[in-house]
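Q: what sequence does this backbone want?
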């Protein structure tokens, strides 16, 4: 995949994990995905923020739990926007809430933390010097951001109002599309649409920016949330390595449409999905869910 140099408004562009012990979490993800880390916080700062890199390019980050945030490890999804302040107004108008008012992150960008009407938390990123993940869709980098929800129709209305997303039904789940995103990708990766069609991807798949899964009824304690999926070359090997590094296997590895995946929790408890692309599984139907992530 071509290296990324920025995104367009409405596209998830960055992920980080808030951790009670950022250094330990960095050791885990460095061992699991081969990330090399740099703490970018100034000396004497109350928290730490380790940016993970592959081939010297930013892919994700591990940071301290922000003051006032729930004392639990979790993964956070950031969506690229032109204005974090305007996004805050759209969130309120659409029935969501502002968890943290927009603020400047040094010279990296400006961000806000929001929740949709169900309470699923996400971030908006107005870039300055930091342009999001430079590598995606290869081993150890972000593959998808997924909303786990109990109210698909309510989520559809909210994210359409805030980001202009549309819904593409995939059977058993759905994908969020942003009209014009495929054109943006095609400009930097000529032939993308043709490859998607040749692989059997549904019409409009090149415009997909995120996915959505219903939270199973037998998981009443799972809160609506945004989860993250990382691409891996071998889901079984990744699951085994995660356990060896102190992580916990929550589900799988199991086969699903297009992929083989495992749901993993890091030593701090933050859950994520490791997904191996398996085109032979394109027509597979599975009953297993990934709402834990």
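A:
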């Amino acid at each position: 995949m071509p290296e990324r140099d920025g995104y367009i408004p409405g596209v998830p562009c960055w992920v980080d994990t808030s951790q009670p012990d950022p250094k330990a979490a960095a050791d885990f993800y460095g061992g699991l995905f081969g990330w090399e880390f740099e703490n970018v916080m100034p000396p004497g700062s109350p928290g730490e923020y380790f940016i993970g890199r592959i081939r010297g390019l930013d892919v994700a980050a591990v940071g301290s739990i922000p003051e006032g945030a729930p004392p639990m490890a979790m993964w956070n999804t950031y969506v690229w926007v032109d204005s974090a302040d305007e996004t805050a107004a759209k969130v309120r108008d659409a029935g969501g809430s502002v968890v943290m008012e927009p603020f400047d992150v040094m010279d990296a960008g400006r961000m806000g933390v929001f929740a949709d009407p169900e309470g699923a938390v996400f971030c908006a990123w107005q870039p300055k010097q930091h342009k999001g993940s430079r590598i995606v869709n290869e081993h150890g980098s972000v593959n998808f951001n997924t909303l786990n929800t109990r109210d698909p129709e309510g989520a559809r209305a909210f994210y359409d109002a805030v980001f202009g997303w549309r819904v593409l039904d995939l059977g058993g789940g759905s994908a969020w599309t942003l009209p014009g995103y495929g054109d943006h990708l095609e400009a930097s990766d000529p032939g993308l649409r043709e490859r998607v069609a040749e692989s059997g991807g549904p019409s409009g798949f090149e415009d997909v920016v995120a996915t959505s899964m219903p939270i199973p009824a037998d998981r009443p304690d799972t809160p609506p949330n945004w989860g993250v999926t990382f691409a891996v070359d071998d889901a079984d090997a990744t699951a085994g390595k995660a356990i060896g590094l102190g992580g916990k296997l929550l589900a799988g590895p199991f086969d699903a449409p297009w992929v083989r995946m495992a749901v993993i929790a890091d030593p701090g408890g933050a859950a994520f999905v490791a997904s191996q692309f398996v085109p032979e599984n394109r027509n597979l139907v599975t009953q297993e869910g990934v709402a834990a992530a």
